[in-house]
Fold this protein.
Amino acid sequence: MDALMAELDSAPQKGDLITGRVVSTSKDGVMVDIGAKSDGLIPTHELDADDDLQAGDEVEVILLKPGNEENLALLSKRRADYEKNWQQLLEHYQSGTVLEAMVKDSVKGGLVVDLGVEGFVPASHVMTKRRDLRGFVGQILKFKIIDIDRKRNKLILSNRQAVDEERQLKRQETWANLEEGKILPGVVRRITDFGAFVDLGGIDGLLHVTDIAWRRLRHPSEALKAGEKIDVLVLEIDQEREKISLGLKQLLPDPWKKAARNYRTGKVVKGTVTRIVPSCAFVQLEEGIEGVIPVSEVSDGRINSPDEVLHVGQEVEVKVLQVRARQRRMSLSLKDAAKEQEKREYRQFMSNQRPETVTLGDVFGELLREKEQGEKTDGAPTATEPVPDVAVVDVADVPPSDDRDTAVEETAPPDSADDETASDVSLPQADEDTASEDSSGEVDGEDDISASPS
């Protein structure tokens, strides 16, 4: 009797989860040896569509109905898998494991996910600001079990807790590896008026607007956009306040290192007006190089503000007055550049001009050259012979009218009596007569010339 009772106690009972081995397969189902007096059958409707069991495979099943010597035991693999899922979910709940699952549906108040059993995610536990959750259907998200009840088939999940917990783990890891001067990859999460917040892996660092680029930015959005992946330099760490200062421009070449060489004092360069204040105007010469035009260097005239002459966006030519590369400052002058331009234009104008005016020096210089040429042709004295003196004729001693020519001939030297020489000597007198008859009265310098023909 005791042996019979022990055998009955050891026999599988309805609802038990048991392990068996596949004996054979047929169109009716799968025959399984469960270690009882009779084998068991898994009907096809108790199998999942992706089940592919072969003879000899080990399989876990639920006993739906015990068998006897005449009838086979009725088994279910699908229900066994379902129970195993619940058991695993219970273990995950107890350990706090983060799970991944696909969103199956969007219903009122939340999402339905498939973890082998259906679970529900309240909308407040979805990591999003969107009210419409239909966009999550079909996506694989991370979840954490926050409530489970097998008897009531209740499974509640949270996506927010899973994301927060994962971020916290990354945060701890990032803080452990964080060092000043280290270059780290990050993602721009949020842009404000004063800078951008960059996610370094669970930790947000501040990239101030002045550390984004070497040029002046009116707003960080001119250089960055949310979601952009960038490399940043860790400038400063404050673990007590959990603040991190980042830099982006420090990873780029500093244009001021070449400013002293590229912009020497006195050089005229081109730039664009970027900003105007009552005391000065700012001009960008290149990316990251900006100079200042004091109001006194804008115009020669008196002005109260640079905006009386300049406007933002205007292209101008300026003269470099002073460069202080270490202080990143450069003084410029607009009025001096304008003067330089005027000088260049004047020099260009003068270089394009050809002399067209004939002076008295040009005329008498030509006459003297002709006289010397004539002397050489007619046997002029050589370099070894003394040159005869030329008599000086006083205008007051010249006889009037017809006697004038005779007086000239008498005073002339014998070697200069030819017609050509006589005409040369008498020319100043003819010019004097002509000048005296000229209504304009222009006789400047003629008396001096006729008094000393040599």
Summary: Residues 28-95 form one domain.
